[in-house]
Amino acid sequence: MNIGIVCYPTFGGSGAVATELGIALAKHGCKVHFISYNLPFKLNQFNENIVYHEVEWYEYPLFEYQPYESALTSKIVDVALYENLDLLHVHYAIPHASAAYMAKQILKSKKISLPYITTLHGTDITLVGKDPSFEPIIRFSLNNSDAITSVSKALKKETLQTFKIDNNIEVIYNFIDFYKIQRIRQSANCCLSNKSKNEKILMHISNFRKVKRIDDIVKVFAAVRKKIPSKLVLVGDGPEKPSIERLVREEHLSKDVVFTGRIADPLEILASADLYLLPSETESFGLSALEAMAMGIPVISSNSGGITEVNIHGKTGFTCNVGDVNSMIKYSLELLTNPKKYQQFQHNAIDQAKKFDIKNILPKYMNLYKKVLGKR
Ligand code: GMT
Fold this sequence. Notes:
By secondary structure, the protein is α/β, with parallel strands linked by helices.
């Protein structure tokens, strides 16, 4: 199968999932063509079945904003024609689904068929997609997709509530390479050389956007640290970083908070955590929480969106209402001060994470591809 994958190359869940899927498909014998404006950050290995096609920019003084969607559409047409794509799989609806639709129409005029599948990841529906400036085009390009998938049941429900979608949406959960994560967990050293033996590490990984509510994490940490010797490791970077740095200073926590900056593959650092925090305003899935669970790290998260399909309250961690910092503090202390309970949660987290192993998820995408190609 010759598959085109369109995704964002930047740090973020949708690009990471799209790239890992492409790599898995390539190992499975498919030829995979990534189409993006930069090399996807996880695409850092050679595989003869993977080709990267860069969307070209045309600089012109008239363009205050680069017409990316047009450039992307042209690139899809070009790749489809010269690489004989069987199908196109776009990750994150905006503007990838509408570019795919347009490319499909152009190819149709040349008597070439290019079905496209749209995978919804989260903010393309829950935040950005709800904006009136995007709503009509999202609805149209979803209704014209040959198949739609969403990464959780909650995201499917929210998509159906927000847009009038006539198409079926198939839930295909995000995945991890469970055994690779286990191997990393066993061989990794602690990321903090100055950590004393009885100190606990709380951790969070993200692209530091408002939706992640990192200020809640700092508040939880400030309270936990009063009772238990601990450190907070914040991995990533993004628009909220300066304000979080200020908050950490104001709370006199600088000595115990580490900002690592952006790290393309944070799994080795993650292995050092005792507790993973994800208090997001909205989270369609929470891939980083799943990665933590695969390492046996319990998760304290919000209960918004699809996180509750990953992190099971009272079993693999705890889920709290958005902004309910007091409950997050209570549950963090409950786990960190009770070794027996903590160990039970560790086992539960690993068992739950195993269900999301790539071996269980890849066949779902392969079956969907076959179904879409069969309909042609
Ligand atoms: O929000 C992010 O961190 C990035 C965003 C994306 O689309 O790049 O992540 C979304 O997709 C991930 C992969 O499917 C999910 O694990 C995240 O939960 C989701 N983020 C939100 O819904 C806020």
